[in-house]
Amino acid sequence: MAAPESGDGNNGAARMVTLISSDNTRFEVEAAAASLSQTLQLTILDGGGGGGDGIPLPNVDSATLSKVLEYCIKHAPAAANGGAPNATAVDRAELERFDNEFVNIDQSVLYSLIMAAHNLEIEGLQSLVAKKVADMIKGKSPMEIRRTLGFPDPTPEEQAEMNAHMLEYGWAYE
Amino acid sequence: MASAGGGDRLSALLDVVLEHVLSFLPSVDAVRTCLLAQRWRGLWLSTPSQRVDGESVKECHRFLDHMLLLRGHAPVDTCDLSFNDFSKRDVPYLNLMCRVRVLRFYADWRRGERLPVGDLPLITNTLTRHGAALMSIVLAVFVQGMIQTILCFLMDCHPLRV
């Protein structure tokens, strides 16, 4: 991974930990960034993940992990500030811009991220990706939602079932 | 364009993840997801949040009636209600929807009509009866688009003027 932007460790260099993806790629990242994951936080606090050890993440592939870490590295400084109550409007706008671009991704990557964010319990990322999927649903008809989310077109039986449901749920379509 | 099987991948996610997705949606959109697949049928019912934005309670009452009826006693954590027009006769609806931990209610009050603040502690009575532990109600009253009053009801159910 890229060198840390700023070190706040005791000896001037930030503590690094190693995460190992399901396909055995090793990612070295600042402990502060990895600690955004509630799942990893305790292990890291216990001193795990350092040296040659590394923390294996059997549920996260390297493409997804690299994306997750991109998020964590960007958000770690603000998180270290306790949600950055004194962050400037510019900082917040920059994070917002980052977030918007971050989820502007291929659907399969988005779905992998949802799983990873859930497994790693990264609260901000969980909300960011869930909100992205919600935005893909908002204000659309059932057929539009199906297409947007990547559902196959309904079979005739499913279509009949959908029609029956729409009659039953007419009150939600007024 | 959507990748093949994307919907199936989404449907394969845990309830708690999908409910999180639905919690970002206005209730009307959350309800509509029940048409996606069998997997989604009952999900909106157990989503711990409700969000209804509308012109007025009168305009939304059919939706509200059905939603409340179908949800039954499914627990609701957060309820966001927003109406451009709200008056005293709509207070009973508010009471129906307030078995929650957090109620955020935004309304544009009718000009000239006395704010039914005296009636609103009814809401907190309901909440007390249902034993909400960490209750907070933020009631923002807008008149002509400007925040006029914000009332915060806390655990002890005394309205605090902010």
Automatic annotation (TrEMBL), chain A:
Residues 16-75 form the SKP1 component POZ domain. Keywords: Ubl conjugation pathway. It comes from the Eukaryota. GO terms for biological process: jasmonic acid mediated signaling pathway; protein ubiquitination; ubiquitin-dependent protein catabolic process. Pathway: Protein modification; protein ubiquitination. Gene3D superfamilies: Potassium Channel Kv1.1, Chain A. Residues 124-163 form the SKP1 component dimerisation domain. Pfam families: Skp1, Skp1_POZ. Involved in ubiquitination and subsequent proteasomal degradation of target proteins. Together with CUL1, RBX1 and a F-box protein, it forms a SCF E3 ubiquitin ligase complex. The functional specificity of this complex depends on the type of F-box protein. In the SCF complex, it serves as an adapter that links the F-box protein to CUL1. Part of a SCF (SKP1-cullin-F-box) protein ligase complex. Belongs to the SKP1 family. This is SKP1-like protein. It comes from Eleusine coracana subsp. coracana. The lineage of its organism: Eukaryota, Viridiplantae, Streptophyta, Embryophyta, Tracheophyta. The gene is ga14711.
From TrEMBL, chain B:
It comes from the Eukaryota. Residues 12-46 form the F-box domain. Keywords: Membrane, Transmembrane, Transmembrane helix. Pfam families: F-box (PF00646). The chain crosses the membrane at residues 132-154. SUPFAM superfamilies: F-box domain (SSF81383). This is F-box domain-containing protein. It comes from Eleusine coracana subsp. coracana. The lineage of its organism: Eukaryota, Viridiplantae, Streptophyta, Embryophyta, Tracheophyta.
